[in-house]
UniProtKB/TrEMBL annotation:
Coiled coil: none annotated. This is Thymidine kinase. Homotetramer. One of its GO terms (molecular function) is thymidine kinase activity. The keyword Ribosomal protein does not apply. The gene is tdk. The lineage of its organism: Bacteria, Bacillati, Actinomycetota, Actinomycetes, Kitasatosporales.
Length: 216
């Protein structure tokens, strides 16, 4: 029975790497996948992992019907044995419904990968729809870590290392950006709630307020 699987986790936990591994293992056995992505950091029509691997993919545009795209491909004599959708949080809810239809009507496995929540801990609409529709939701096992060593569960947006809570939901970016750039950092819930990033924790530790007072 084919299924819709949502592989999720924080940023930088290995989702795209797993997508590329699934693609590699299936293509090594002669299967052919249809790979979708949207807004990958490597550019339009790319699925890339921080381990340096990258493959070509179909860029999902706003108005695209992903079900119709696969049907067109098949009806023109193309082959698709399974479907991968990376950065699935950026897909519209209707496009997630189209992925489910690929599973149900075309009987293809669909593997979707994405972060569940944004920098304000709110579900992305595409991820919400995946949680609602997926046959299985798998949380990635390679856990990203907060600066304190706890499992990172949330994504923070930063400017110069300082967490921000205002702004557009979608801003393509990466972890470990240099100062002044908009970047991201994964945090445990405790430190996300306290807005305490690695940089602000370091600054607080160095502050004279928290140094032991020398009595003479
Ligand atoms: N130099 C490195 N050596 C080993 N593993 C690395 C290295 N750089 C990144 N990684 C691994 O790659 C993961 C990020 O993979 P990626 O697929 O890009 O994540 P995601 O798609 O979830 O954002 C990191 O959590 C880490 O495990
Ligand atoms: C938290 C958050 C993230 N994004 C963007 C930043 C990246 O371009 C992607 C996540 O990619 P990854 O492969 O999982 O690292 O999402 C965003 O636009 N808005 C957010 O709130």
């Amino acid at each position: 029975m084919s299924e819709l699987v949502f592989f999720c986790g924080t940023m930088d936990c290995g989702k795209s790497t797993l997508a590329l591994q699934i693609e590699h293992n299936r293509s090594a056995r002669g299967l052919q996948g249809m790979i979708f992505t949207r807004n990958d950091r490597a550019g339009q029509g790319k699925l890339s992992s921080r381990l340096g691997l990258v493959t070509d993919a179909v860029e999902v545009e706003d108005s695209m019907d992903v079900y119709a795209h696969v049907v067109d491909h098949l009806s023109q004599g193309g082959r698709a044995d399974y479907v991968i959708a990376d950065e699935a949080q950026f897909l519209a809810p209707e496009q997630i419904d189209q992925l489910a239809r690929i599973v149900d009507d075309l009987e293809l496995d669909v593997y979707a990968f994405g972060i569940t929540t944004d920098f304000r801990t709110k579900l992305f609409p595409g991820s919400q729809r995946l949680v609602e529709l997926a046959d299985r939701v798998e949380v990635l096992q390679v856990e990203a870590l907060c600066w304190c060593g706890a499992r990172a569960t949330h994504n923070a947006r930063t400017v110069g290392g300082v967490m921000v809570v205002e702004g557009a939901q979608v801003v393509v970016g990466d972890v470990n950006q240099s100062a002044d750039e908009i970047g991201y950092e994964v945090l445990c819930r405790r430190h996300h709630r306290r807005r305490m990033t690695a940089a602000t924790a370091r600054a607080a530790a160095l502050s004279p307020d928290v140094l032991p007072v020398q009595q003479s």
